[in-house]
Here is the input.
Amino acid sequence: MITILAGGTGAAKFVRGLSEIVPPEEITIISNTGDDCVVWSLHVSPDLDTIMYLLAGLLDEERGWGVKGDTFTCLQAMKRYDEPTWFQLGDRDLATHIQRTKWLHEGLMLSEVTACLCRSLGVRARILPMSNDRVETRIYTPHGALSFQEFFVRERWSSEVTGVEFHGGQRALASPGVIEAIRESDGVVIAPSNPITSVGPILSVKGIRPALVDTPARVIAISPIVGGQAVSGPAGKLMEALGYKVSALGVTQIYRDFLDVLIIDEHDAALSPEIERLGVRVTVANTIMHDLAAKVDLAKTAMECLRTDWGRK
Ligand code: FO1
Here is the structure.
């Protein structure tokens, strides 16, 4: 069993490659829910849905979110009611949010709802929300706090960032199966996701970070920072705002207490000695996943890192 900590488009690309070489029944994905939002009274879980759609063969892989070939007729109609339409929900995607919201109102937990949605869509890998409790990523700016989607989509991450909070994280309990997956896996992979706002909320949930520190499984991560820049999105901006170096070294600092191996890009090979001085082994590979072959190659590298005999933890 391989457990992946995932959030956003980088994770989806990695899981796409992994799904070509590991049977779905052997994959558990622990997904960020700090980006969840309520749109038109519907509960939207973007990172859960991205992985779910990917594994169901429904994801718009070019955009990195939503359902491929979706239409936006409802969104256009909502404009006539002066409802906010900056967060674009497609018509087919809406069915997922309507169903999720219905089941949540009927009293199911988010993890149960996710399992039901996955079953309906034929997803055989296990997708677990990090928590059934609400953990909300808040981005602080000089003009006040924004939710993650306000910062990321509405403001196109242009606001100055003065802080990040995972509101509710310390009280939140890991959802059923999360701690066991980390403890009992053959390996744990932190996907090449934003370490602050995709992986950070997962690590904020009570018990998850200690489980990563204690697990007998090897824990590896793939750096989402290449050549001093995020491969996509605001990871660099957020790392800088929180005082980390925008480099694979900064990624190491964030994960250092539980990380065994960091996969860094070929462009960053020169950082290897400094990273290894922090007690983390390094593997150098092409981490830019432009096509399916590159996604599969990176997944194979990650699986080799889990298998290589580097001695015990
Ligand atoms: N990202 C955008 O950049 N613009 C959107 O309008 C947008 C809508 C959207 C709807 C459903 C969904 O599941 C994801 C959506 N995303 C959109 C992506 C989302 O903001 C990000 O993938 C994550 O929250 C970051 O991991």
The pocket of FO1 is lined by residues 7-8, 35, 44, 46-47, 49-50, 65-66, 87-89, 93, 149, 152-153, 198 (CB under 6 Å). The chain is about 40% helix and 20% strand.
